[in-house]
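#onboarding

Welcome to the new folks! Below is a worked example of what a typical request in this channel looks like: someone posts a single protein sequence, and someone else replies with the predicted structure as tokens. Don't worry about understanding the tokens yet, we'll cover that in week two.

Example request:
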Amino acid sequence: MSSDRALAEGSSKYAAILTMCAGVLFLATNDAVVKWLVTRYDPFQIVFVRSLIALPLTVSLVCFFDGPKGLRSERLPVHALRGVLGVGASFAFILSLRSLPLAEATALVFASPLVVAGFSVPLLKEHVGWDRAAAIIVGFVGVLIIVRPGAATFQVASLLAVGASILYALIMVSARWIDKRDSLWTMMLYMTVFAAVFSAFTLFSAWPTPIFSDVFLFLGTAVAGTLGLTLISQAFRMAPAAVVAPYDYTALLWASLFGWLIWGVVPGLWVYGGAAVIIASGIYLITSDRASESE
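Example response:
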């Protein structure tokens, strides 16, 4: 009987890992489409159209999983704050894609878990031991390896990607302030709603003349982004974070592949070296956090 239970748990973990990897693939696809769109559209315009298209999808997900009650929340100000952070993070990341290769921008955003661990001390009053503090410092050394300030290849756009990772980290930390009765689907809904609201000002700006293919590109980024977040959220419900979170880093593989296939760009060794340091630090933080919770 115990062997059957172990087999079932193992199958559940594999299913969660596959779900996580599928979600990461969809988000990487979203990023590739956005990089294509940002050559013609302002980042705020992309955020607005994407959110507007994604809104009926997220409403459908909420109603399917939680019913009409999932459309309500007791902490709208927190969701509004997360919406502001989300728009800022998207703007910074999308703008960085105008200049940075997809893989490099993706690798820099990997710093988010490190920033989360750093913010957990002043914002959540959590204790960070010396080993986790060392992992955070080492992880930021990985960021410096990629950015290489002072080098001839340094780009200001790299700082935008780092800024996006900081804002993404604040979004993750602020999730602790959301009402416990709000589900993951409700959180997704209000992120989409407030992203549309806070980027709506772009309606009064000058828009480029759209071409027919833009319709499919905007539809693609909305569907891929929504499906990606949905699958990743589901993966975290299927298995512990220590099991599925490390597979978030498969995004670098997809970003490298898309960058090569679409733009003919192959990241240099500095990008992969720095990413390896960031990933190793992030995985250590994830696994050590899980170990401390189980004690």
